[in-house]
Write a structure and sequence with these properties.
By secondary structure, this protein is an alpha+beta fold. The chain folds into two domains: 195 residues, C8orf32 fold (Roll); 79 residues, Macroglobulin (MG2) domain (Immunoglobulin-like).
Length: 315
């Protein structure tokens, strides 16, 4: 009897997990079949995307999925801080935008679908070299969506980061859809984004821009693996050579085959260093950095960048 109960319980847990993974599959598949909807104006696109869905959550997901898969990041406009083409109709026409253009388009389409949605301006870090280097101006925008009346019914959406990423020179856009920036995990999102208006920090997070820029850089895969508390907590690490640095990241238990450290920048990047790790509730490993210098360090899980730091190693 106990074995039957245990089997039933495990089946229930596995079923819940699979259900969570496929929560938006029907919505995503339906939107994918619609294609780019070229030649239509914003109102028609918004109506076409949302009219067959009942819930506001599914409507918002349809908007997010379409935008992230059909609008590219405009590296030139971002680099030049060019805001001329950020109006939603222009973004739909050009099929590229700055993060602000993405967020304004999400907001406008949600408005057509009668969903309360606001554009939020703030800061992110894209590369380990950004750690402790606060920019002079705001450098990112995203959205908050409200589905109910209580504070708990506000959710994060970042369609621009979900679309892919740019290289350091802002010249090459790589399309790479990330599902988890929709209704993103609050704890992780707050380590990855800092709003200009603290009212739009949903839950606990850094208390200042300076504190935010002292944190490690969160990459897309961190959302996929459900990473939470980071150890080390500081993004800039000062340590003597051959002293062990202990890394630990509580995560969602997804199966992991390999973890590597990528040490150095593109010009002086060493071969990936495979780690001996444990993954019982948290990804955990230790490493001694031998070369005295300053350099970025990226934690890569199964070929996907998870989080990055900047290290200052002394003799």
């Amino acid at each position: 009897m106990k074995k039957i109960f245990l089997f039933s319980f495990l089946f229930f847990v596995i079923s819940l997990s699979l259900s969570a993974q496929g929560t938006y599959k029907n919505v995503d598949d339906a939107v994918q079949k619609l294609g780019p909807l070229s030649g239509f104006n914003l109102a028609v696109i918004a109506d076409t995307l949302t009219r067959n869905f009942e819930s506001k959550e599914d409507k918002a997901r349809a908007i997010y999925y379409w935008i992230a898969n059909n609008i590219a990041l405009d590296g030139k406009a971002i680099k030049m801080n060019d805001t001329r083409n950020n109006l939603p109709e222009k973004v739909v026409q050009l099929r590229k935008a700055t993060p602000l253009g993405f967020s304004l388009l999400v907001q406008e389409m949600c408005s057509w679908a009668k969903i309360r949605c606001l554009s939020v301006d703030g800061y992110i870090k894209n590369f380990p070299e950004d750690i402790n280097n606060q920019p002079d101006e705001l450098n990112h925008s995203w959205n908050v969506v409200q589905l109910g009346q209580s504070p708990d019914t506000w959710y994060y959406i970042d369609a621009s980061k979900a679309s892919g990423f740019l290289d350091k020179k802002m010249a090459v856009f790589t399309k790479h859809f990330t599902s988890e920036y929709f209704f993103a995990d609050r704890k992780l999102f707050n380590l990855d984004h800092y709003p200009d208006n603290s009212a739009w920090q949903l839950g606990a997070g850094p208390k200042s821009v300076k504190e935010f820029y002292g944190l490690p850089v969160i990459s897309n895969a961190a959302y996929e693996y459900g990473v939470q508390k980071l150890t080390p907590a500081n993004g800039y690490i000062k340590i003597k050579a051959n002293t062990p640095v202990n890394f630990s990241f509580p995560y969602n238990g997804k199966t992991i085959a390999s973890i590597n450290l990528i040490i150095g920048d593109a010009r002086k990047q060493a071969k990936p260093e495979p780690m001996n790790f444990t993954s019982d509730g948290a990804i955990a490993f230790s490493y001694k950095f031998k070369v005295a210098d300053t350099y970025p360090v990226r934690v890569v899980v199964d070929g996907k960048e998870l989080v990055s730091y900047y290290l200052e190693i002394s003799e």
